[in-house]
């Protein structure tokens, strides 16, 4: 029997806090329970916000917690070619298009529509959907804008992508969505509109690299926070378009701060480093996030 493969995938753009500890320790516990492998992946495609110092701090925190991941671990910024290859396939299949609009242009367009009384659709995170201008450009217009050196991102043509599907998309959820959804979940990627597949400054995006890596690393169980529950619909779509294996998903509770809000990267006194410095032990951390024990493997 092949062993289950779990992964913890932090972004080194800030300090790990109790929410990350919960995610990491839950991956540890589930891997131990199932005799699975445990991988670590540094999701550092945002090269302006991610730094080697923050990556080193994450390793210190994880080692202190006693997380025993396989080495060497994967660092996304070492693998641009993998993402470029996946992007090239989507370009060849004409499922993505170059998007030139600047943030300011997008904002002004949507504000103008809303001032005219139009209700502009929003994605599950509350961000307005990308407007249609770039999708509607002719091939020759695209060519000349690229020739002019205008920077562009690659965005998924959501309607074209959905047209490639032979059946509705689903995923198996062993955790729960925001309303307790569990079991076989119907994926609805259309609610995200034309998502970014490759940013202006990098040949990838969170959505593209996460599905490429989960497949390349043979991940069978994605255990992560509920804030990524809705994004799973986009991940399922990309997996289907690229013929990638589909893991099982487990979205867990978020650890909330005293103000009832999700913890942020500027975690202050909920950062693992601050807790460690104030005398907390890994067992205390496990207890604080509701996982009673943390076994040193
Ligand atoms: N890198 C993402 C984060 O730190 C997690 C991605 C995932 O688990 O799919 O929020």
N→C terminal distance: 22 Å
Q: Which class of the largest domain in CATH terms?
A: Alpha Beta
Tell me the β content: 5-15%
Ranges where pLDDT stays below 50 over 5 or more residues in a row are none
Strand order across the biggest sheet?
A: 3-2-1-9-10
Domain Glutamyl/glutaminyl-tRNA synthetase class Ib catalytic: 7-132, 183-290
Keywords: Aminoacyl-tRNA synthetase, ATP-binding, Ligase, Metal-binding, Nucleotide-binding, Protein biosynthesis, Zinc
Biased composition (Basic and acidic residues): 114-125
InterPro entries: aa-tRNA-synth_I_CS, Glu/Gln-tRNA-synth, Glu/Gln-tRNA-synth_Ib_cat-dom, GluQ/Sye, Rossmann-like_a/b/a_fold
Give a structural overview.
There is one protein chain. 36% of the residues lie in helices and 14% in strands. It is an alpha/beta fold and 297 residues long. The mean pLDDT is 95. Glutamic acid (GLU) binds next to loops. Residues 114-141 are annotated as: Disordered.
Note the main attributes of this structure.
about 300 residues; alpha/beta; Rossmann fold; Glutamyl-tRNA Synthetase, domain 3; 2 domains; 5-stranded parallel sheet; 3-stranded antiparallel sheet; 10 helices; globular; binds glutamic acid; ATP-binding; GluQ/Sye; protein biosynthesis; glutamate-tRNA ligase activity
How would the blueprint of this fold be written?
Blueprint: E1 5-8, H1 18-34, E2 37-42, H2 52-65, E3 74-75, H3 80-92, E4 96-99, H4 103-115, H5 139-147, E5 153-156, H6 158-163, E6 170-173, E7 183-186, E8 196-198, H7 206-216, E9 221-225, H8 232-242, E10 248-252, H9 272-277, H10 282-288
Parallel strand pairs: 1-2, 1-9, 2-3, 9-10
Antiparallel strand pairs: 4-5, 5-8, 6-7
Helix pairs in contact: 7-8
Bound molecules: glutamic acid.
Biased composition (Basic and acidic residues): 114-125
Domain Glutamyl/glutaminyl-tRNA synthetase class Ib catalytic: 7-132, 183-290
Organism: Nitratireductor basaltis
């Amino acid at each position: 029997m092949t062993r289950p493969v779990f992964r913890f995938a932090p972004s080194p753009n800030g300090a790990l806090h109790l929410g990350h500890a919960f995610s990491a320790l839950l991956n540890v516990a589930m891997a131990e329970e199932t005799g699975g492998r445990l991988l670590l992946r540094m999701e550092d495609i945002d090269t302006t916000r991610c730094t080697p110092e923050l990556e080193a701090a994450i390793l210190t925190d994880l080692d202190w917690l006693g997380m025993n991941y396989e080495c060497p671990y994967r660092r996304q910024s070492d693998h641009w070619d993998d993402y470029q290859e996946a992007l090239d396939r989507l370009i060849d299949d004409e499922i993505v298009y170059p998007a030139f609009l600047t943030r300011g242009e997008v904002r002004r367009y949507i504000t103008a529509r809303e001032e005219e009384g139009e209700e502009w659709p929003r994605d599950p995170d509350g961000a307005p959907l990308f407007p249609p201008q770039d999708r509607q450009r002719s091939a020759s217009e695209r060519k000349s804008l690229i020739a002019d050196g205008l920077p562009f991102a690659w965005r998924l043509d959501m309607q074209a992508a959905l047209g490639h599907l032979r059946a509705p998309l689903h995923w198996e959820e062993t955790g729960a969505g925001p309303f307790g959804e569990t079991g076989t979940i119907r994926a609805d990627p259309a609610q995200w509109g034309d998502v970014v597949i490759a940013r202006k400054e990098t040949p990838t995006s969170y959505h593209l690299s996460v599905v490429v890596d989960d497949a390349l690393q043979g991940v069978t169980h994605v255990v992560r926070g509920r804030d990524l529950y809705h994004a799973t619909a986009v991940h399922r779509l990309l997996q289907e378009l690229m013929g990638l294996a589909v893991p099982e998903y487990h979205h867990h509770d978020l650890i909330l701060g005293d103000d009832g809000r999700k913890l942020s990267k500027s975690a202050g006194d909920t950062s693992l480093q601050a807790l460690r410095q104030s005398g907390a032990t890994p067992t205390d951390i496990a207890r604080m996030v509701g996982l009673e024990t943390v076994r040193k493997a």
